[in-house]
């Protein structure tokens, strides 16, 4: 049985076998929008975690835009809107850059648009939940006053970015299927573009945020971001050898997995010289294009393993049909 069927399975590899080079490296060039650089949609949270009875700060829904150009943009009079009603033809429209405000978005800056009843940035749900935001130089915050939520449907909707003349600058007709299907629940997870200039209205451009702490990355580079052109090793281990002896030097093995843009389920495990699995690091874990795992030289029970040669094996199953696997040997020193 090849290790390519879902759910992802790991095949035991004895330390003496040859390395698996079926997907040792790849070269990728993303298909980017051929358009005049202007604000683009870059991240959307449509199903936030909000429970008034859980004693946890509510996560606000938000839309993030990005300025990929080289000039500063004045967004005064701009708005976002959802899909027009099929019966009335009307849409919910949210003006986020009113007259009299600082509505400039500089080159390389992210604009985070969120609802807030009083319109005040300080103490807002956005800056309370994403507590790094106010100190992020590349982030501009735009709050829509008198709204507590945006009317973005959890079962699918359209987000449109509209300029001050009423023209649609960018749009995304998202569905829940734009999330990584490996996630058991996508509530509180945003959808992020792999690169800001990828086509916004395509499911191939988006994946679930892999940010564990916040479930999204408003105001900073997306957790699933990939460079437009890259040639990388799929599976690398460093340092090799490593020595988990507590001296803070080479204590952790860094396992780097680099894949083409897409959503994956990932399996990674460590095996000893007899082929026995000693540590399971990932098993059907939802992942994006770039993943970094660490191994501390311990088994699944938390016990230190003896010095020797170990085998790291990786399989990644992509929902676009792509499959990647790799296996490398590492020396654990004591």
Q: Overview of this structure, please?
A:
There is one protein chain. With 334 residues, the chain is mainly beta. The chain has two domains: 25-29 and 229-332, Sandwich (Immunoglobulin-like), CATH 2.60.40; 40-208, Lamin Tail domain (Immunoglobulin-like), CATH 2.60.40. Helix content is 1%, strand content 36%. The protein has one helix at 125-129; strands at 25-29, 40-45, 62-66, 73-74, 79-81, 93-95, 104-105, 110-116, 139-145, 157-162, 168-174, 191-193, 206-208, 229-233, 235-238, 253-258, 264-271, 277-287, 290-295, 308-318, 323-332. A six-stranded mixed β-sheet has the order 9-8-3-2-12-13, with no helix packed on it. It has a four-stranded antiparallel β-sheet with strand order 6-5-10-11, with no helix packed on it. A four-stranded antiparallel β-sheet has the order 18-17-20-21, with no helix packed on it. Strand 8 (110-116), helix 1 and strand 9 form a beta-alpha-beta unit. The longest helix is centred in the middle third of the chain and has 5 residues, at 125-129. Mean pLDDT is 91; it is low at 1-21.
Spatial order of strands in the largest sheet:
9-8-3-2-12-13
Shape verdict? elongated
CATH homologous superfamily heading of the largest domain: Lamin Tail domain
User: Which residues form runs of ≥5 with pLDDT under 50?
Assistant: 1-21
Strand content: 35-45%
What Rg is obtained from the alpha carbons, in whole angstroms? 22 Å
Helical stretch tally: 1
Structural domains: how many: 2
Number of strands: 21
Distance N to C terminus: 36 Å
The sequence of SSEs as H and E is EEEEEEEEHEEEEEEEEEEEEE
């Amino acid at each position: 049985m090849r290790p390519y069927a879902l759910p992802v399975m790991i095949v035991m590899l004895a330390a003496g076998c040859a390395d698996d080079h079926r997907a040792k490296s790849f070269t990728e060039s993303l298909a980017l929008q051929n358009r005049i650089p202007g604000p683009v949609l870059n991240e959307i949270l449509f199903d936030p975690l909000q429970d008034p009875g859980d004693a946890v700060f509510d996560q606000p829904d938000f839309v993030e835009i990005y300025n990929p150009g080289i000039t500063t943009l004045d967004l005064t009079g701009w708005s976002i809107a959802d899909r027009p009603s099929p019966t009335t033809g009307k849409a919910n429209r949210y003006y986020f850059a009113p007259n009299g405000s600082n509505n400039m978005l500089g080159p390389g800056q992210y604009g985070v648009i969120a609802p807030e009843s009083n319109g005040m940035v300080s103490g807002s749900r956005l800056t309370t939940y994403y507590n790094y935001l106010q100190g992020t130089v590349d982030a501009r915050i735009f709050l829509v006053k008198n709204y507590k939520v945006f009317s973005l449907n959890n079962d699918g909707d359209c987000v449109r970015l509209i300029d001050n003349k009423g023209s649609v600058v960018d749009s995304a007709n998202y569905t829940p299927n734009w999330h990584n299907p490996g996630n058991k629940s996508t509530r509180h997870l945003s959808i992020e573009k792999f690169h800001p200039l990828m086509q916004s209205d395509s499911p191939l451009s988006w994946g679930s945020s892999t940010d564990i702490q916040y479930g999204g990355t408003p105001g900073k580079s997306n957790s699933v971001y990939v460079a437009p052109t890259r040639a990388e090793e799929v599976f690398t281990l460093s340092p090799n050898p490593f020595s988990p002896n507590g001296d803070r030097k080479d204590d952790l093995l860094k396992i780097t997995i680099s894949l083409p843009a897409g959503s994956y389920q990932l399996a990674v495990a460590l095996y000893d010289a007899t082929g026995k699995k000693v540590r399971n690091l990932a098993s059907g874990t939802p992942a994006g294009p770039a993943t970094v795992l660490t191994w501390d030289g311990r088994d699944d029970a938390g016990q230190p393993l003896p010095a020797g040669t170990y085998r790291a094996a990786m399989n990644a199953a992509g929902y676009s049909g792509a499959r990647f696997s790799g296996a490398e040997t590492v020396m654990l020193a004591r």
